[in-house]
User: Fold 2-methylcitrate dehydratase from Microbacterium pygmaeum.
Amino acid sequence: MDTTLERLVDFVDSVETRHLAPQTVEQVVRHVVDTVGCGAGGFRSEPAAIARSVVEGTGGPLVASVYGQPEKILVDCAGFVNGAANRYLDFNDFGSSGHPSDMIAVVLAAAEATRAGGSEVVAGVYTAYEVATTLAESVPATGGWDQGIFSSLGVAAGLARVFGLSRQQTANALSLAIVPSAPLKVTRYGQLSEWKAAAVPHASMTASFATRLARAGMTGPPEPFEGKFGLFEQVWEPFDLRLGSAVPSAIERSSLKRFGACYWGQVAIDIVTRLRVGLDLERVESIEVVTCDSAYRAIGGGVGDHDAKWRPSTRETADHSMPFLVASALRDGAIGEATYADERLSDRRLLAVMDRITVTGRDDLTARSTRDRCPTSVTITLSDGTVVEHEQDFPRGHPANPMSDSEVAAKFDDLVSEALPAAASADLSGQLWDLPALSSLEGIAAHFRSFGAD
Assistant:
């Protein structure tokens, strides 16, 4: 195997839950709780429903539970369906590799299917985050490749840990996961489609399948990184991969979200919900949003997609539209699922507010930005000349401005309230918060199958 692959295998082989710092385990639990809550809020979505309809009835030696479906299905497919639900609201976490919690659904599915306990889930999630995040932070430039390229390797690493694969099986799993998987970043630009919610879950599903192939004995190319026509020749410039040495850990460096919207809009939403207090909203004449280049390019029309951002025609584009998010936060004081109702996309009053919004990038803010730091300034000017403004670097949920356990729990309770009765929601919550001590995931999985039941 090549040097990079060997380093990945060495790292996977070294992970033991008992060696993880308590604060690392705590963050794994918080991110699992948060992700399941997002799934409860998104399991009725169209992408999740389509995914369920396609994979319904699949079976095999390893099966796992799907949100809102009584029968278990093939483990890879279960991870895909639940992953699409987890991602749909754009409420799940954010990190250097994109939305690393997109990998959690397949880890939970694999653990359920193999009757693993909570300790194995913790190890699998930790491993997946470390691999995906370290890769993302090591690559000199991602070019046009989407975040699923990191998640494919993260999932294979995490599941290798859950399945207890040998070193050779782990090497094959990683190779089989990445060699056929180089997704395109076009998923996230222009008018966005339902694929936005399914892209990384799909990469995770194929990585789960690859890992099961390796577990059954299939071999993969031994030099997927450094070999002829490998990743370093075809996709990325070569880099020196160092795993497991960063402190704090990858999952401790990842952010949770206070609002169901693109991460790059979180600071602007935070600011606007504060600035609006006491203002006569009917007298707002202009709103100037100045931000870092990452936010400007992702959701501010900075890649020639101005029209798509100022007139979003899909929910997926609306939650990645800075003008839509800022206008909604100004008008409503918050961002929730009602924000994205179909009628809102053509609401003339909201569109009129959006037309008074400008979004630009600024060099000094870009210079202060990092992969997850998004300096943003918002200036609101009223018709009488009153000006209110604020600048902020970190949104609520970032490690530098963290959500408390009670905030995470409240977010979970709110999202799960539409999927389970109060008593069942409380029981699911209790089991998730107690994840490291669980000997089985069957209690959690039973609640998954009950989502939406009368």
